[in-house]
Structure prediction request, 555 residues.
Amino acid sequence: MIRILFFVLLVLCLALGFAWLADRPGELSLIWQGQLIEMSLMRAASILISLFAAVLIVVWLLRTIWLSPHTVTRYFRSRKRDRGYQALSTGLIAAGAGDANLARKMAARTRNLISSDQEPLIHLLEAQTALIEGKYDDARKKFEAMADDPETRELGLRGLYLEAKRLGANEAARQYAERASEKAPHLPWATLATLDHRSQARQWDEAIRLLDQSRAAHVLEKNEADRKKAVLLTARAMERLDADPKSARDDAQAALKLDDRLVPAALVAAKALFREENLRKGASILERMWKLDPHPDIARLYVRARGGDSALDRLKRAKKLESLRSNNAVALATVAEAALDARELALARTKAEAAARLEPRESIFLLLADIEEADTGDEGRIRHWMAQALKSPRDPAWTADGVTSPVWLPVSPVSGRLDAFEWKAPPSQIAAATEDGHLNPDQAIRSLPPVATVPRPVEEPAPERTAEAAPTAERDQTERERAERERAERERVERERAGPEKAISVPDRKEPAASPATGKDAEEAPDPFFGRPPDDPGVREPAAAERTTTNFRLF
Prediction:
């Protein structure tokens, strides 16, 4: 565009010049070698401009002839480079599609047309070709060469990391991820992988420091970064709760500022405050969290905040929770449990039945069975509630990667992923045995059988027993037998409900050591250039000897 504008301006200037000379005619005389040359001024200007243009044309022709060998060479070189890039593009597409033969052919053609020093993508094409052909050693060597080149360091480290994860070399994968995060802290995969590894090793301080660096580099979204930091602070608070309640309280409260709906952080903060004899502030934290999320763990800790409280005191606290979130199944069940402990059986039955109508769950029907045992002791009615518990949906639990835990854990013991546990109902394979496929709590309550009125035989007291001791001993024996039957019935229900789902059992505030990651994390899943899924027919699985003898170069 600039050249066209310059040409138009030049033509305009020449036209103006000739028009100016035409308006001012004149004669030009020149004596050269004894000859007199006379011409008009317009003719002289035309000859001068024509001569200048002829000189420029001659110079251009001489320059073109002089540079013609270089021009021809550059033309053929450019054509060869274009063919090489076309072959490279075709090879990458073939490798992504799993066509090993075409990818290998295009890789060889690209290397003949383009130098690998000029185009690093050739290494990527060769590594991908080796992967889909099952030549994992060759692919690993290519990735190691790319990791040594500053221009392709991050690409090589990512390839080595995914290969190490595929073969189960977790230590090598950890080192590759940490090196990538040090060299390029803006890479999300390296930051998240290093964060998971440090969390599995319970290195909470290093994990929090790395997360702060990623926040400064804007690697993660603000909400995601705040959530992960709140989880890490909660994990560190749980670890410090026994030895240093004050530090645990500070970490838990900082976690609540980042995520006010994180129930484990509220529990840790309340426990730390209770240990500091600050019951009012701890209860305030639990009440605030209860209004947002009525969680059973919150209710349990709130009701039993003071160890010396009587059953009636615990019932009052449970009623206070119910007043904060009325018409809630968890609140009603909490009041029913506290009323059962306080031996107010009518209130316990009323609240438990109301909770069953709102949200029929296994634990609520088991609670009704306990109330029935304490109230009437009728075996038929107890079995009725146990049968309803067997047919009802399971209670929510801390679940992650197909396993459940009695307490919240910051890291999944299966995949090693941070913040994997969710409070949700585990999958159940036993459906409600009803005609319409759904449990009807009202019908279950109405179908409760009447209390059996079978008279009990009266035994004569032994001569050595007193009149008061005989009924007491008989009642204790009856209660023990009833407790044993209740325990056997509950074990039977649990065995029937147990399925292929796994469960982990960990003590309070003690997380198990994170096992090696065996699941496929969505954030760490190999992309099309660094591996194929196991069911891809274009990928050859490594031999068993290769899986056991593969050695990664560690840094």
In short: The chain has a mean pLDDT of 80.
